[in-house]
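Ticket #160: bound-state structure for zinc ion.
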Amino acid sequence: MLGHFDQRSNYPSNIVHFLRNSPHNTDFNMHTKAIRKSVLSLLLQIGKDSFPNEFLAQLLHANGIIDDIVIIPGTITTPVSAYVRDDVRPLMLNLAGTAHSHPNGVIRPSSTDIRSFAKFGGQCHLILGPPFTFDSWRAFYADGSVRALDIIEDDAGHII
Ligand SMILES: [Zn+2]
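RESOLUTION: The complex was predicted; output attached.
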């Protein structure tokens, strides 16, 4: 039998069906509560290193705490956009959301961003801007509204 692909995500349809009904589907069943400080620090550093271009990463969580990131191969970035092909986005059960930078310093999602949040999935989308300090980022729900996100100090010796 030929494979069928979900129109929205381009993942195999049978897997999308399974995930939508899975208790592990964090998109529907769990809200991310916090981010590890070392991960936020890493994102701020990537934002700084990518400047004046944007960067884009997926955020992974364990038990509601963002603890890792994935940079997707082939991501194309410019000063005003970050683009990932739909057919190369990794499918992960522990996806919390995304992080990307706005080099112009406007820390709010564009209408393109909100469409992209829905496509990626997850309920925690970070936008970071210059000067890429702990005060120059915000977290948003998939609909673009501002949300709270705690920062958790890493355990001594924790290495990412
Ligand atoms: Zn954006």
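RESOLUTION NOTES: Strands lie at 34-36, 56-62, 65-70, 76-78, 81-83, 95-101, 124-128, 137-140, 146-147, 150-152.
TICKET STATUS: resolved
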